Amino acid sequence: xxxxxxxxxxxxxxxxxxxxxxxxxxxxxxxxxxxxxxxxxxxxxxxxxxxxxxxxxxxxxxxxxxxxxxxxxxxxxxxxxxxxxxxxxxxxxxxxxxxxxxxxxxxxxxxxxxxxxxxxxxxxxxxxxxxxxxxxxxx
Length: 139
Hints:
Elements: E1 3-4, E2 11-12, H1 15-25, H2 43-54, E3 59-60, E4 67-68, H3 71-81, E5 87-88, E6 95-96, H4 99-110, E7 115-116, E8 123-124, H5 127-138
Antiparallel strand pairs: 1-2, 3-4, 5-6, 7-8
């Protein structure tokens, strides 16, 4: 069953997501970010997101020097230095440090192409492949 917003006409799978959208659209929900107007349920999540715009460095890897604006991305990165790859593809046995990396990888095997170019409608199984593809249109 799908739920449609009376405010913006978007469709949502759950009533909870619809409620969040409606309160955000009517101004009753959490405040929007000042730069991109993206909304978050918790102010702390908005603050972390804000750092992605300001490029404020909150975490720095002592091993390689790579910097991060969010703690969760920093913790995930640290696993690569400890070779912690606990998420293994059942099909090809490739291992990943984060579940969402494995989930994205699995699309290669299923041939699902969920990432579609808004310019030419070409579809890709990986978001990074679509990002690379957009460079063709900007040259």
